[in-house]
Sequence to fold (434 residues):
Amino acid sequence: MDREAFQERFGLIGESAALKQVIDKVIQVADTDITVLLQGESGVGKDITAKAIHEISHRKHENLVIVNCGAIPEGIIESELFGHEKGSFTGAHEAREGYFEKADGGTIFLDEIGDTPANVQVKLLRVLETGEYFRVGSSKLRKTDVRVVAATNKDLWQLVQDENFREDLYYRLDTVKVKLPPLRERPEDIIPIFRKFVTEFSAKYDSVFKGFSDEAKELLISYRWPGNVRELRNVAEQLVVLEKSQFIDTEKLQKYLKGRQHTGSADNLPVLANREQNQSDNSSSGRGFDDGDQQLIYRALVELRNDISELKKMIGTFLYSTFSQKNIKALPQNIQDEVQMGNMPDLDIDTESSTDEDIGVQPYTEADITEEDEEEGATLSRFLNDDEIPSIEKTEQFLIEHALKKFDGNRRKASEALGISERTLYRKLDQYDL
Fold:
């Protein structure tokens, strides 16, 4: 099967190089029994890809069993995967076959494999390597012949490093890895996919879509699409239903976009109209800013204040957590003053009433400062004392990179030092393509 036939059969729209690379790899491995690991963000189409692999393989006439490992409670996931015997536990009123048994001869799709409990990972490794397993409550060895396709939106190798995922299972799953690109990495596909969804929903709801402006088209392309194709589909459906027979401009479109744009503008802010157009309108109407303009600017300022507050908290928490264990006085004097005066939020330092011991700093001597301390202090000083004030996003990126470098890539320790959650850190890493 060639690429065009594959795209037509499974309704995949797009001509980007990233999409073509994925399709070519899927076609290459589909008709084998090799284990495939699909890696990508939520909403990129991992389930569709798994179904495509099954449907063009030699197992296509057998079952495709889809299992969401993250949606099954830990207490019953072993029973769901491998089955159980009657009376093996409370509520087991009859014997039941598991998903691996149902998929015998076909394909099993293990979605969100990174959420599998540790005790089940051992048994997954065995069934992947030998096809052998036991039902819960049984000593009878069973065998199954399945092709395994797994998927994750997490960094499995990082989970291995954090000791939350077995390394041997990781290597067994990572035989062939197919990375599904997020929508923002193939912007040339966004408009064609959007038009396809709009056409489908217009027919479904007997609605008329009048189209959208060039500015709205640019906004669609620049938007980051954190929910990827799933979010794009949702936005298209809302526009067809809620903005029926309306021509879509940026103001209408912005109401349905919840995340960030590529350029880093604040969440859910409307886009300012072209300056020259505003001047033309103002000169013809004889007016300046109207209430709508003032409201827009006010919202932008509120968002900017929130971003600055979050950034100040990150800087303060990072400086304090980084240097309190050694010596705050390893910092350059001007930054020492800021930290010890409590100008950074959440430091809770009162220099008039607190001693060094109160704030976690040991008595200071020159010998306490290592070359590493001086190097870190100089790096932060050069960045924070630059004549040109860095942007909020540039500062965030600098702090994240510096924290990851300091803790040798350990994201848990880096997030603690930055005063943010691991989930927020992962979002920031994705936002800045780190």
In short: The longest helix spans residues 291-323.
